[in-house]
């Protein structure tokens, strides 16, 4: 070293600091990459992404290579700085060189390159992967030796070294990814994706048409009444039963009944029953994502929901599940919901007690609790723990509510105000 001029040593020191900055920036850039975007680019043939993906297949080797290179460079830079300090300031130069080198390395070989790499991880990683791939081949024996020692030490600590990173996302993590997509995914599409993820948390009895609202035809009625109900039904399918809904005998497609009407000699109760499809029953606790697949597998579009005792408690259709994903197929608030909710001039809403809480939340962007009762009537009764005998006012989940109309043992009409601002 004594034969090397001071100017050359300064030049070598500057080069070493640049190389140290390269290793520091490469490490940060590689670790800051979006792994899913990287996989997408690699699958589409991006050469830089393919190189980086190959390096990241064994992150222990990549980190080992970068740290070997970085430490060798920093140690050599420290030695050169010590020589320069002693040449210029004698023994005091060692302390001066140590302090100055620490500041220079910190600013120019650590903070600055790592900050730039975190801001532009793809540009840094794809470019540096060329040199790192070459170094990995040249220094592979040394890298493997260091990794063997390191992994052996890790095993002594009782920790299993897992080289394959777990890139799988849970539904909650995927929900966060979708929400953070910003303008990359249109808001409408984000809502649909979130709704699909939420299907597993919603069961068929959360969206069902309640038993008392099921449109059906009692096959024991007189024939003229049956024909009149068929011709005036607003639905594509109706339930056929005897005396009560639990004695269901079939599900009739109105299109099939119209076909039978054209064949006057064939249009009787017997032919109507023969034309009816077998009823498809669904357990009440079935999640929507499961039921959607079952509808597809069984080629069904409608089913009756039964409780643990086998009693019919409601009805659900394929359209109901699809509306949970894409929203109502009608404009504004759904007709059924608009009939149950009436806006008032003071900002409140008159809501029928039978209105479904989830529908209220979706239509009015509220957050009434949905983990208990499914109707507004049930929610208020649960809160009161009693059936009110007269009109009264309560506050449920931050919403002031005034019971407007009672009918027998249920709340028929409620005046609900938006949630109070805390």
What can you see in these coordinates?
The protein contains 18 helices and twelve strands. By secondary structure, it is of the alpha+beta class. It folds into four domains: 6-156, no CATH class; 169-201, no CATH class; 202-326, CBS-domain, CATH 3.10.580.10; 335-416, Uridine Diphospho-n-acetylenolpyruvylglucosamine Reductase, domain 3 (2-Layer Sandwich), CATH 3.30.465.10. The strands form three sheets. It has a five-stranded antiparallel β-sheet with strand order 8-9-12-11-10. The longest helix has 31 residues, at 59-89. It starts with 5 loop residues before the first helix and ends in a 6-residue tail after the last strand.
Short description:
This protein is of the alpha+beta class.
